[in-house]
Amino acid sequence: MPVINRIAAFSEDMKSWRRHLHQNPELGFECHETAAFVTDQLRSFGITEIHEGIAKTGLVAMIDGKAPGPTLGLRADMDALPIMEASELDHRSKVSGKMHACGHDGHTTMLLGAAKYLAETRNFTGRVALIFQPAEEDGGGGGVMVEEGIFERFEIAEVYALHTAPGVAPGQFYTEPGPLMAAVDEVQFNIQGLGGHAAYPHEAVDPIAAAVSLVQACQTIVSRNHAPTRDLVVSITQINAGSASNIIPSSCFVGGTVRSFSTEDSAMVRQRMTQIVAGHEAAFDVKIDFNYEPTYPATVNTPQKAEFAADVAEEIVGEDQVERRSGPEMGAEDFSYMLQRVPGAYLFIGQGDTAVCHHPSFDFNDEISPIGASFFARLVERALPLDS
At 346, is the pLDDT very low, low, confident or very high (cuts 50, 70, 90)? Predict the structure, then answer.
């Protein structure tokens, strides 16, 4: 079964929705205009049960099928990134310093496309919960929606989501039963020394020297304290210090992330970093304020649901366009909180040879919107079939 004909028929509408969203990006939990646009579209489809103000600007819309049954959740994220768009597209961002650089405008559009079709046809039992969440990029909006009780309130029994994948053939799906994406922890080191003149370093306590050594020591955790056959990444991404070439600063900030698939590995890194901090305080005569903050947990697909979702994807694009064993990767996702609550699966859908996610030239490929919408719609019809 290819792309659903009815969805293909309004593909130009989907392109228009997506480009409107791209031009009007919002960050974090402040997705007010985005949520209003989504709500207006849903109402135009004849969907009347819309619950707003969840996780501040998130919403859940309900579509009833033709007979009683369980509730299936479909999720899309709505927030953008604090990046200055570099493209000259006609639909480029109108908001300076903000852009949809990770495809959330496309994710929202694909779910809206499925919503329009499902509201028209309702060829399923039970109910569909359309989950539009803010703050995936920063803030864990998915976790907040879980904490605010959407799964209990709407009796959602299982949940699914899609994410665009640059560099993968358009419309090609991939996923992994079990662990798919890593947990991510944030680390911060605030190093306090004693400022002074660069010509007289012996009269100062140099926090930069301590920072350089500390970063090198942290990089040995993966290579010397962890089994090489297991996935673990320590990435130091920030070093901020100094104001002039002839001044030794009084402080230095170092920050980064730790990505893993087990709480044991995360605990080991935290312990080793604590030891490294203590050693560097003594060796460099500095004071280091160390903070280790777990954020998103690992995204772990329910194996049975991942296989089912792959079956549905095959119906849309063909067996040769679905990779069922893609292996885990080190990115993180707050859809993980939803998968901790109920069974479900997270899949990627290729968008072709484009700029990577989080790049200032990224743009979602509108040609895959009908494919993603068809996947969501067919998944509902397969998971909640009407009696023949």
Answer: very high
